Structures are given as C-alpha cells and as structure tokens.
Fold this protein.
Amino acid sequence: MQINVNLGERSYGITVERGCLSSVAEYIGEQRRIFVLTDSGVPREYAETVATAKHSMIYTVPEGEGAKSPEVLFQVLGAMLEFNMTRSDAVVAVGGGVVGDLGGFAASVYMRGVDFYNVPTTLLSMVDSSVGGKTAINFSGVKNTVGTFYQPKHVFIDANTLKTLPDRHFSAGACEAVKMAICLDAELFSKIESAGITEDNVEEIITRAIEIKKNIVERDEREGGLRRVLNFGHTLGHGIEAISHGEFYHGECVALGMIPMCAPYVRERLIAVLRALNLPTEYCGDIDAALAPIEHDKKCEGDEVAIIKVEKVGKFTAEKITTHEFKTLIKKGGL
Ligand SMILES: NC(=O)c1ccc[n+]([C@@H]2O[C@H](COP(=O)([O-])OP(=O)(O)OC[C@H]3O[C@@H](n4cnc5c(N)ncnc54)[C@H](O)[C@@H]3O)[C@@H](O)[C@H]2O)c1
C-alpha cells in the first residue's frame, strides 16, 4: 500500500508493507552516504537491515525521551560531520517517535538540510509522529520547544517490526489512533471499539490513521488552525508527561488528557476503549502540578488555551478558553 502526502515540492510517499524494511537502502540510493539513527532499545537487526549501502553507518543514542536533548542532538550532528556527510547524503531514522523527532531535526539543520527518511518501528510513530514533518527536541525542561517543520522524503512502515514491541508501548501507540478516530472518524472508532487493535487488523488501522492525518496535514501543514485537532488530549497530557519523569509514556498521558475533553456519553465510550487497550483512565498524581506547565504549552497564547472538545464521536470542536477556565474544566472532568 502506498499513500501520498501532497504538499507541492515537499510531497512524499508512505509505504505500508510488511517486509519493506529490506528495500529502504535501494530506494534511497546505494551511492549516497546513509546515516542511520537508532536507539539502544530498538532491536539492532532493523537498523542493520536498512544500513546495507556501501557508505552507511549506524549511530545509536540511548533509548528514551532523554535523547531528545541539545546534548544528544549535538553528538548526532558531530557524528554526521565526522562521517563526512554532504548535502546530497541522507539521514534515516529507525525507531520510535524519539528517534524520528531527533533524526528529523538533525537532518533539517545539518548544512541547512539534508534528506530525511523515516522508518518508524513503534505503533505510535507509525500512526502519528512519522507523518506530518514535525521535528523537535526538548529544551530547558519544556517538551518539543526547539524544532522545525521538515517533511521526510519517504516513510517506510513495516508492521513486522511491531512483533518485538513491548505490549505497553503498543497500547501507548494505539492511543494516538483512538485520538484520530474519536475526533474525526466515527467508523474507525467503532471498529477499534468492537475489534480492538490486533496483529490482524493493525495494518488496516495504521493505514486509516495515516490517511486521516495526511488529509489534515495537506490542508494545514504548519498548524495554523485545523491541524490543532491532532493535539487533542495533549495539553493536559504534556503536563502529566512533564511531571511524571518517565512514569507514564506519551500515549498514556494523551489517554488521560483526552478523557475530560469529551462530553459524558463520549467519555464513557472512550474510557471503555482505553481500558480494553490497557491504557490508564485514572490519574492519581498531583493535578495542580500537571496543570502548571500549560502556560509554556504551544497551544497556549497569552492567557488563552486553544482546546479541542469532542461532543459526538467522530466530530470535534475547537475553542479558546482562559487558562483558569481550562483548569476548572479539567478538575471537573472526572480525572
Ligand atoms: N513529531 C510528531 O508529530 C510527534 C507526534 C506524536 C509523538 N511524538 C513524539 O514521539 C515520542 C514518543 O514516541 P514513541 O512512543 O515511539 O517512543 P520511543 O521512540 O521512545 O519508543 C518507545 C520504546 O520502544 C523501543 N522500540 C522502538 N521500536 C521497537 C521495536 N520495534 N521493538 C522493540 N522495541 C522498540 C524504543 O527503544 C523505546 O525504548 C515522544 O517524544 C513524542 O513527543 C512526535
């Protein structure tokens, strides 16, 4: 299956096909230098399958969110320079959203931009972060503060790599597919509600989630308005993530962040789906502390927060409310 993201000269294709990992090197061009970025938690064989060109190297960063830091970014850029990369060479990220965000950012700033290819190997990165061109690192304790919009040249999604993904990470990724479904596609939501996300239907769900995301990105590449729907659940989610110091995964924080933003009947259905996917539906931490970072959030302008609400499955509304109103809404929201 091939999906095209149509963004004029920044257009690219997404291949969703079991086994496609082994065709990445040939697709990119064996003559170029290929810098394969991965992390220590990604099975080594995936990067090795991609790094078969004569001039390729694998660079491994420590696994986890901590790799999205200025220090690691400069180590990566240093390794690219040492590898004598020129502007005609390419960076390939093989891993989850961390490696994709870091590798995309490094590719976008090295010599003012070298080609970037993404090979997502977590469910989260397949359904969400590998598409749309957002790259970032965390800075000064604030998530995704430094980054660029930089579209990949191609994305390769090989669902066979999910076989090694720990269940908890699979669930966290499933949450981003639920997010797209509940805001934009009632049929997809019902499908997940009735069948869950399994080895058998995962490719179909990935494909549908990507189609939803691509339709949004094509209409609003740089998040001027519509694309903000993809931040559903992320304002509170990022707050919980910021204070949880790794206790919760990104997708789990988004799950918690979505719940209070739904009307009661929708919330009931959402909670049932999240529970079936083994995602958290209750937060026992300090909600005031989780709400404190919202002033730094990119969705916050002055004293206003841009929020997304879902009052009917498959339909969302966007509005701006004060940070005080947001905090009240969350506290009343049943978390
Ligand atoms: N750019 C965007 O649009 C966007 C969107 C959503 C999330 N994100 C970012 O994505 C990040 C989260 O991504 P993630 O959930 O993929 O986390 P991650 O990249 O940390 O990967 C999760 C863990 O799984 C391991 N792993 C990866 N693939 C594996 C495989 N196939 N088998 C076994 N282990 C594997 C990794 O080593 C890591 O330990 C966050 O930093 C978030 O901000 C970005």
User: Anything to note?
Assistant: The domain at 2-163 is CATH 3.40.50.1970 (Rossmann fold). Residues 167-184 form the longest helix (18 residues). The chain has a mean pLDDT of 94. The CA atoms of residues 266 and 319 lie 18 Å apart.
